[in-house]
Amino acid sequence: MVTNKWVMFGCASVALLSASAMAQSIPAPADEGTRADGPITSANEIVVIAGIGYRDRTDTPEPVLKYGTDYFQRFEPLTAGDALKRVPSVTFLSDVIESDAPRLRGLPPGYTQILINGERVPGSAADRSFFLDRIPAELIDSVEIIRSSSARRTGDAVAGSLNINLRDGYELDGGYVRAGGLLFNDDELEPSLGLVWGGKAGPGRLLLGANLQGRHNPKRKKSLRYGDSPENNPDYATDDFDNREDQTDTRDGKDYSFNGTYEIDGETTDFKLNGFYVRTDRKETERSFEYDDATAVNGPVPVGNLLTDNSNIADIDQENYTIDGKLSHEWSAGKSSVRVGYARFTEDRIETENEIDFEDLEFSGQRTRTDIRDTEFSVKLEHEVPLGEQAKFVFGGYYQDKRRRTGMFESEQESDASATWDQFKQNPDNLAAAFDDFEPVDGGDNRIREKRRDVFALVEGDTGRLKWEAGLRYETTKVRITDYTVAAALADQRADYEKLLPSASFKLSLSESDRIIGSVARTLRRPDFNYISPALLEEEVGDSDLLGNPQLRPESAWGFDLGYEHRMGTGGIFGANIFYRKVKDLIELTNTGVEGSEGEGTFVYQPRNVGDGKVWGVEFDLSTDLGFVGLPNTGVFGNLSWLDSEVRDFIGKRRFNDQSKYVYNFGFIQDFPNFGAAFGATYRKQGSAFGRVIAEEVTTTYGAELEIFVEKRFGKTFTIRAVGSNLLNGRKREAFNKFDNIADQIDRDFDEYELESEKAGPVFQIMARYAF
């Protein structure tokens, strides 16, 4: 088997040899300061933004919303996730002031395809989602919301795709440095440093970037638990109170990132080599106390009210890198291109939880080690043939070899505890002894290999007023799962499936300012990794067990988008869009009828393709200056998405789990060109969300978010900004209904009702940029 380092070496060698050969054979590149699709941006233009940025108007047939860095930068987003909080239909279920896994149109993250420079990237989570808070915003040239699918790309995009275009050598001329700091409400100061340079190098252009980002999130959580639900007992707060938990939760770490591109644009041959690397060192520290009183803060029972004292510390090291090279050539038979890519994600996580139970006077400790190794090697071939002056035919193939190794191991310890305890001066970690050797948990030691071979073909047309595209993509997948925690007869499982994915889209210009945009496509969502392991997990579904299903097929969806765009003034746009998705073969947990490990009343559940669902909504967006009312230096922007869906599960109808009912944001930027200054604000609100799984239901609500910036420009090379974010002390509230089993859930016989809230304070940052 070819090792990862040799795959990396081979990709890099081929790319470098190709670059060396082309340096001698490619005709002179495009003139300095220009490229095929527009002028090169000078570093001064990035540091000192002239005017107000708006959504770009794209000309491709697909329904795409594009936002350049000038749309985001003045609010100083730290990550790509932060930037996406200002675009339509993107929601997050993250902790307060964090933006990791985007939920396009409110659907779970696995329904959204994440692209970097137009190519998919492997996700680290079990649902294949990619955490966008790993990408520093400083590396971004633009972000795109691709509402529908195309035969050019893999079909894993039921909700749509989010494309992050990183800066490249032909996007920047010159360099700049960024330096600043972020002050949190616990007086922690974190650094933010960056350096980006782009310029001519040999026959092409080179861009290099490096970033250091301090990460910090101090939160306070509070939980109130009751023995029943208020649906059955409106006096639960006094009659059925069980316990209260107070928790501090601090996320602290550093992100280190490096990126580089080398690109040669010739008359007939183009070459591009990309590299991107992010390392995260993160520590999550939680300390929580449970009391048997709603307000008391004192010592252990029986004298006091303290039930438990818990310490939970997670040390997380993550690395994520990609390297890919693309070579394209125009010749008499058309234009051919080949792209070779390699991506790798690793996570090493050690989590230690120590707890004292003062009712039983017991100390318990548990240490969990999680190791994830996820790699993808891919090759994409594409050939384009003109069909007269107004159309072209494109066809190609795609190969991917994905390997994922998951290891989860545990070690536990128990001992007696003392009734004498001061939770304000002592810590349960001090009672921990050396842990025993790690043992794999059920389903926690497996290997997954996924091979994909796709072919696609499409026709594009452009008649001036009408731009259109229609295509087919045929995807085949072979999956092999090897789980080392189950019996040998079940350890090695295989599954094969294939899908035909048609797609079509158009843009019809009604006038110079108005156009209609439409699309229809079939897409899919592949099963979660933790569902396809053949392991049996005891008490994973309430008191019942969960058995994986290696034969799961992907969910598939037919959907359409229909939108309208109106150009306003020189750069403004108003847009409206409706969308609909019909999802089939939904993956739901089903009762196998086998009794569970806890005996009578419990069962073994297994994920199967059994359900259907539908998703629909309306989306509006606006970004424009107010020149039409005499305020050309005032820019306003906003978007509103109303989202809905329907799924039928074991109880009845519900929305897709955790889909917010709506999300909107609006704001303004006021520029003062004569003074070299600007200020602005943005306000965001996300609607409530409901989720229901076996034995648990949760309703989540969010507080509003407010950000304000003030900017001063000095000449053409220096800018300083002050930004205040989370100024409304963002809060997230969750209400849980918990049950012992599905029968109790149907009968509404509650085991526990819990109210949990978390809150974080404002964050202030000062950021300066200097161009050279």
From TrEMBL:
Spans through the membrane: none
The keyword Coiled coil is assigned to this record: no
Signal recorded as keyword: yes
Localization (cell): Cell outer membrane
Occurrences of domain TonB-dependent receptor plug (ranges): 58-160
Region described as Disordered: spans on this chain: 210-259
A Pfam cross-reference name: Plug
Keywords: Cell outer membrane, Membrane, Receptor, Signal, TonB box
GO cellular component, one term: cell outer membrane
Segments of skewed composition (Basic and acidic residues): 244-255
Database matches in Gene3D superfamilies: TonB-dependent receptor, beta-barrel domain, TonB-dependent receptor, plug domain
Signal peptide: 1-23
Domain (TonB-dependent receptor-like beta-barrel): residue spans on this chain: 248-691
PANTHER family from the UniProt entry: PLUG DOMAIN-CONTAINING PROTEIN, TONB-DEPENDENT RECEPTOR-LIKE BETA-BARREL DOMAIN-CONTAINING PROTEIN
Family classification: Belongs to the TonB-dependent receptor family.
Annotated protein name in UniProt: TonB-dependent receptor
Native source species: Sphingobium baderi
